[in-house]
Amino acid sequence: MSTRALRLGTRRSKLAMAQSGQVADAVRRVTGRPVELVEITTYGDVSREHLAQIGGTGVFVAALRDALLKGEVDFAVHSLKDLPTTQPEELVLAAVPVREDPRDVLVARDALKFTDLPRGSRIGTGSPRRMAQLNAYARAHGLDIETVPIRGNVDTRLGYVKGGELDAVVLAAAGLSRMGRIDEVTDFLSIDTVLPAPGQGALAIECAAHDADLIAALGALDDPFTRVAVSAERSLLAALEAGCSAPVGALADLLADGQIVKEMRLRAVVGTTDGTRTVQLSTTGPVPETHDRAMALGRELAAEMLAQGAAGLMGERAQ
After folding, report:
1. What is the spatial distance between Cα 177 and Cα 280, in angstroms, rounded to a whole number?
2. Marked catalytic residue, from 25, 66, 74, 82
3. What pLDDT band is residue 53 in, cutting at 50, 70 and 90?
């Protein structure tokens, strides 16, 4: 491999720059080459529409992929949950590093926990998935909340709480952690309360499929357990024909006996955003030894969910 600087394509947001900077440091260590960040503006960054309106799928990704295909950057870093489930043939996911905490978190006024929010509290989120599960939990436990659709970066969302417009917002733990702001969290939402988005907490490092040397070098950052887990989650999402803005939560976690990982459990939920109807299922089996087996696990659970009426709860399905 040459010694010229590798060009890393990244979105311009503080969160994207933070996580891309961390990946750049890791790539410098494994390749010995300098890495420069190339900032790219995506449609999702400039649009003021809600993600559910603009489709969600790929709106933060397309511009980065275009830059890769044109050779303007050598590799790109994505939040894996933003990636469409269909992978272009010309590009490859060279690495899926170790996953951060996949949970959602609450940042509320007066350091409140979710279950301590007073009646009528307004909770902001841009995610139909979060709305569906928060409302379903509230209905089941006699809580009185209102979920409010919001857009904007982390600072904007937290500002709604600081400014008193909202009582709380829900964000991903991983993003706040990567930005060094995890101490602002007032409540970590249990996986049993809110299942995360498929791939949440994981990053995807993507490059051109023909660049074998770079694929091999970036592969040093790949975590096999994270990869099989997110492959199962994304396979389920694809089989449901749902985009990344659909009200679908999924998490594959590894079950260990002492230090030995024995099984993988895949849990998933689909629900209407008002929380009145949900389909929630899980399956547990041996840790998939191949990508194809992980994909099959996701498809099988999706088929069970569709048989129980999941399609009718998702609104418009992805094209």
Report:
1. 28
2. 82
3. very low
